[in-house]
Design a protein that fits this description.
216 residues, 75% helix
Length: 216
């Protein structure tokens, strides 16, 4: 019980520190409190079920990874002197949440499930926005091709791991499309959310299975 209270105290300290830094230094420090400590707090308050020992270990690592990525992005944006409006600030809350979720998934799930979930969800969301923007048209089909290629490489990489290199090739291709605008907050956000799941799937595809397969 003491451990739970200690974790709760530390989480609250980070949240209040983030709020103070956000108000005093830069709004980018809001990301210190966004997403990274949300789920541990909910567990400490009893809203969500507690984790077992292995899950707590993975959760701690994923939180640290999300915090590290968040701090790097904060420093980058402060260095670029980018000023966020509130819409962008709210949107960037996705970065620590996505990072934490991807790291947790990559460590907790089997190789096949990690690749399947990360690639299929990404492609599904991507295609949804493509067809939402252009309807069922030839232009939509052309814009959908990168997503379809990512899906093909992801499915092939589940069976033959060297196809994971194709996922990294897609990351290079996507980077070439974003490189000119990568310093803009919105472009960086979209770039990160698109490429992070692909990188995770690519890394896991090249790794040998280290987690026992789960029964379907």
């Amino acid at each position: 019980m003491i451990g739970r209270k200690t974790r709760l105290f530390v989480d609250l300290a980070f949240i209040f520190s983030g709020i103070w830094l956000m108000k005093s230094v830069s709004p980018w420090f809001a990301f210190l409190i966004a997403g990274v400590f949300l789920f541990p707090l909910l567990r400490d308050f009893g809203v969500m079920r507690d984790l077992d020992e292995r899950e707590r270990y993975i959760d701690a690592i994923s939180s640290k990874a999300a915090l590290a990525v968040t701090i790097l992005i904060i420093l980058l944006q402060i260095g670029l002197k980018n000023i966020l409006n509130w819409d962008e600030l709210i949107a960037f809350v996705l970065i620590p949440i996505v990072t934490k979720a991807l790291v947790f998934m990559g460590m907790a799930l089997s190789r096949d499930k990690t690749i399947s979930y990360s690639i299929r969800v990404l492609v599904l969301v991507y295609l949804f926005f493509v067809f939402l923007s252009h309807g069922f048209s030839f232009e939509a089909l052309i814009e959908a091709l990168p997503g379809i290629l990512v899906l093909v490489f992801g499915e092939l990489a589940r069976k033959w791991r060297w196809f994971g290199l194709g996922l990294f090739g897609m990351v290079v291709l996507i980077t070439s499309q974003f490189i000119d605008d990568i310093t803009r907050p919105n472009a960086l956000l979209v770039f990160y959310i698109i490429t992070a799941p692909i990188v995770l799937a690519g890394v896991r595809s090249l790794m040998r299975e280290s987690i026992p397969r789960e029964n379907s």
